[in-house]
Amino acid sequence: MRFRRWQKPGDVTDVPRVEISNSPAANDRFLIDASYFAIKNITLAYALPKAWMSKLGIDGIKVFASADNVALFTHLNGMDPQYNFTGGTNYDYSPNKTYTIGLEVNF
Prior knowledge:
Blueprint: E1 19-20, E2 23-24, E3 36-47, H1 50-56, E4 60-74, E5 79-80, E6 92-93, E7 98-106
Antiparallel strand pairs: 1-2, 3-4, 4-7, 5-6
């Protein structure tokens, strides 16, 4: 392994140079690809027509549904790369999905 290491400019090898002038050198050898695509929130709402509501003596009715942490697309199985800015991963699991439905009535 000693002879495969990087020694001078132009060397092609899979073993990086460990130090420069007796001080450790930063390199990307142990970084992982933590790219991802996340769908964080979807909210849908529908307000019933005012003509329908006036017959019932109500100012308005709105029905809504919301979903949080809908999807996370990444090659890291089960792990969440969203919360680490160093290029690595801290091996946190994805947050729970939350679904909410509701009805808002105005009198």
